[in-house]
Specification:
The protein is of the alpha+beta class. It contains 21 helices and 19 strands. Helix 9 packs parallel to helix 10 and helix 16 runs antiparallel to helix 17.
Amino acid sequence: MMGGNSVFSPSDHSLSPNPNHLCISMEDGSQSSEQLVVDDDDDDLPPIDDTPDLDIDLEDDHDGLLHHIAAPNHQDEAEEEETRCDDSFANEKCFMAPPAPGMEFDSYDDAYSFYNSYARALGFAIRVKSSWTKRNSKEKRGAVLCCNCQGFKLLKDASSRRKDTRTGCQAMIRLRLIQFDRWKVDQVYLHHNHSFDPDRAHNSKSHKKSSSAATKTIPQPPLHVQVRTIKLYRTPSLDPPPTHDHVQSSRRLELRGAFRALQDFFFQIQLTSPNFLYLMDLGDDGSLRNVFWIDARARAAYSHFGDLLLFDTTCLSNAYDLPLVAFVGINHHGDTILLGCGLVADQSFDTYVWLFRAWLTCMLGRPPQTFITQQCKAMRTAVSEVFPRAHHRLSLTHVLHNIFHSVVQLQDSDLFRMALNRVVYGCLKVEEFEIAWEEMIIRFGLTNNETIQHMFQDRELWAPVYLKDTFLAGALTFPLGNVAAPFIFSGYVHENTSLREFLEGYESFLDQKYTREALCDSESLKSIPELKTTHPYESQMAKVFTMEIFRRFQDEVSAMSSCFGVTQVHSNGSASSYVVKEREGEKVRDFEVIYETSAAAQVRCFCVCGGFSFNGYQCRHVLLLLSHNGLQEVPPQYILQRWRKDVKRLYVAEFGSGRVDIMNPDQWYEHLHRRAVQVVEQGMRSKEHCRAAWEAFKECANKVQFVTEKPS
């Protein structure tokens, strides 16, 4: 369920509909209205006579950020307005971010409600100054919302005894309808020429209307829909645990005076990264609850590594000052990559649903194959709500950590630790695991331990013996969740890290991650790994895998020497069952391997140890069987592209199908803009890339100019 409103800051906007004829309805608060017909060849809304000069081509300023540079005086006004909001928030009034060019809303009503809530928070009323509808249609295409003090009393009303409240105030926002039924703010003027009167404003028509509307029941979307429409406005939203100091009873996110830093942080990134997105969750009263953001590189990286997603809530579990959560993936070097961040007000079901839907929306509705989280009832319910087709699993490290913390009397017991590890990692079959678990809890007197009972009830979500059908990309034992520090932010985020400190070091942190990946790429491509054996599988994979993944695979090849005694125990047509023995110290264990050949001469293997699902490359037992059956190379279906070093991974988002309707001018802009943004982002990689992109743009401009000047 989505509570309240959200704010969406899209960067890859498409061209808005281009109606040639618009019908304008001028609304001045009276019952009558005047309609005008405007020829709008440029797809701009009609000019506003009494608004300040904000003459900026917002068609090319898709994030509304150019406006902040070109008109710094308006940014100062935004700071002034935010200061007022900060003061009101300190007095336990609602905290509202001022409107800004580029904000987008799901509907006109949402945009109106946002500006109305902002006005109510400051103490002024609003009205619709003018609105535009398409000719012969009641469909609204644009509108100007202004302060109720806009304009002056007409001469014919000068003798009226009614109090004159018009001061010629120019505060306003201008809205227009863009593609996908979204409404965009393209002009903003925040300065008022009068003092605020909260008591009078709260009794105004606009605020009375919003109060009555708030009491209506909001229909919920159907639960069976995989990707739902999500109200995403342009504002932040965060939900830390309910026991933290920064959570109030109304689920408000307290940024402790750092909202301006957060807003500046978002604006600055959007200036250099057009596909950077941030979303904010607002309560019905306009208060800030949750925030989510994701950069362009992360959105592109997910297209390569979307098979596994980890949700890190370490800061919440350990009651850090910073209520930070992170979406984490695993790259081709087996290293963690950041796929989105959030700030949350609590750990409720509503918060997690909003956050997961926000992330899914930014990924165009593409859920991960596997989603790993900590053990949390609200989180688990939210995952089933938003990602019903994903394999939801629990962090094994978090589970074991909780188990150790629940048995205070055994925390220092090496015997218990060894027994638990043997049960969790050593059992190959379900029956074996359940029997060994029962024997362990009886042996250590844990039959009545509630944590142990709950963990066993959820065993199918975390115990390796149940996860052999789940791809984990080597993340089975990653230290996710209730540990000393978030593994993705280890050494960067600490218990007392403030939001300002986090934001100041954020880009440096990402640069270090990107630099490390680039160095690993270079090492993998240029270095020749040292071989430990003469086996052909090792030399084959040395030419294919990235260096880190090859080292892991190399350990499996080396461990083939401890395996022996390949014996066929059953055969049924194309499928055969083998037993491979492995010597573990003084013990010898049997591993069952299924070997199957198809009509197309393809080989399929499955080992009871589940090595391929857990790691993404075949285990020592399968490798020995393949060698035993005469295969000189690892079959190509077991060489995953995600681990290959010869794959060019361009971290440039490719959104949409790429198909363009040549008869639809609206799609021309969308297609050209996306391609241009891809070139821009590639050009930001280095001076050489920038020079190549610049030359390419000049060449393109010359070709387009040639077509323009070519006689028809």
